[in-house]
Amino acid sequence: MDGYLIISKAHVRYGNTEVLRGIDLSVRKGEFVALLGSSGCGKTTLLRTLAGFNTPTDGTISIDGRDVTRQPPDKRGMALVFQSYALWPHMSVDQNIGYGLKLRRVEATAARQRIDEMKALLGLQALGSRKPSELSGGQRQRVALGRALAINPDILLLDEPLSNLDARIRLTVRHEISALQRRLGITAVHVTHDREEAMVMADRIVIMNGGEIAQAGSPQEVYNRPNSDFVAAFMGAENVVEINVNVFGNSIGISEGRNNRKAVIDRGDRQLVTGKAIARFRSEAVRMTPAGDASVSERDGLVLTGQVSQVSYPGGLWRHVVHLGETSLIVDSATRFEEGAAVEITVPEPALYIFARN
Ligand SMILES: Nc1ncnc2c1ncn2[C@@H]1O[C@H](COP(=O)(O)OP(=O)(O)OP(=O)(O)O)[C@@H](O)[C@H]1O
Fold first, then answer.
1. Start and end of every ABC transporter domain (predicted)?
2. Rounded to two decimals, what is the model's pTM?
């Protein structure tokens, strides 16, 4: 594998429990990778393993061709920023930013200059003598970032650094961090369980599930071409229906079911065999029409028939809960359909994710 930061076949255990089960990941120099996954999937463990706080039982970690698997954290040229800012409460902003420089015995004039550079970079010039308790959450997180960057690390590791910030500040700091990372050309690995945060910040998203990598790719790839039912659901394709498919050549035939019409769609790159399948789609990726609309044809995609049971307006589009037998779907539409209305929902081929049902 080529790359700058390479994790190869890494297994990590806590006692008898294997938490990372064979992780292979290669990060390019200057790349921003987000580790995304639900609670307990092993994101933090992977980050801590990169940092050197956990040692893999099997597998290796290398940086720029150097094997660092058994090296202590302070020899790895990495800086870590946590969810809790972990700033020293009794120290000023300047002292906090300069903390790593002091540990490394950087000479006073050079340290002063570096602290000033960091403050300028992060817009903290006026706050150098304040204590952390006199700062807002966003400012504290910037100080934590300044402290991490002051030592000029090769790799920046971020563990949910934005989760303690309120929603609006989070959006700003999100963009500040990624702009800074790009400007400095620093390699970054960022842990988050927030899908949108990963989408807007990262060059590449690594989706983890149960200690393994479920899919890695650009934000567009994992969003538009999820490779499994798990990734599709995790990336927001939460509507799910069971169908029967018949795969022939470059086409997929969908058999008529209790709640769907017969249809034929392009196979695309779907890996499917004839039989039972699960179809998934996002609530906003469909067209809803009154039932029996003659303009809908079997070439338009998967056509589902149901009844509206609830309508609300979260903003922008109308949101409908639609019942199909025992299943219910969420469907967003620019047009409002009344409760009780019989409707058809057309899911066009590109928005339709289909996976074999075991
Ligand atoms: N020190 C530890 N000892 C034993 N088990 C641990 C330890 N730390 C974490 N675990 C377990 O390892 C698994 C992975 O934890 P990890 O913190 O890596 O998950 P995560 O994906 O970062 O989750 P979250 O988003 O909740 O932080 C979890 O089941 C957790 O309970």
1. 5-235
2. 0.89
35: Cβ–Cβ under 8 A, 6 or more apart, which residues? 43, 46, 47, 189, 190, 191, 192, 206, 208
38 C-alpha to center of ligand 1: Å?
11
How far apart (Å, rounded) are the C-alpha atoms in residues 119 and 113?
10
Task: Name every protein residue with a CB atom under 6 angstroms from any ligand 1 atom.
Answer: 14, 19, 37, 39-45, 193
Q: What spacing in Å lies between the alpha carbon of 27 and ligand 1's midpoint?
A: 23
**pLDDT tens profile 212-224:** 999 999 999 999 9
Sketch out the chain's domains with CATH numbers: 5-230 (3.40.50.300), 238-356 (no CATH)
Tokens of 275: 């039989």
Give the H or E element holding residue 229: helix 229-234
The confidence band for 85, taking pLDDT boundaries of 50, 70 and 90, is low
- Helix (H) or strand (E) run with residue 322 in it: strand 317-324
Ligand 1 pocket: which of 41, 46, 50, 191 to mutate (most atoms within 8 A of CB): 41
> What are the φ and ψ backbone dihedral angles of 18, each rounded to 5 degrees?
-85, 115
> How does pLDDT run across 317-332, given as a tens digit for each residue?
999 999 998 899 999 9
ipTM over 0.90: yes
Query: Which atom of ligand 1 lies closest to the CA of 193?
Result: 25
Return d(Cα 62, Cα 65) in angstroms, integer. 6
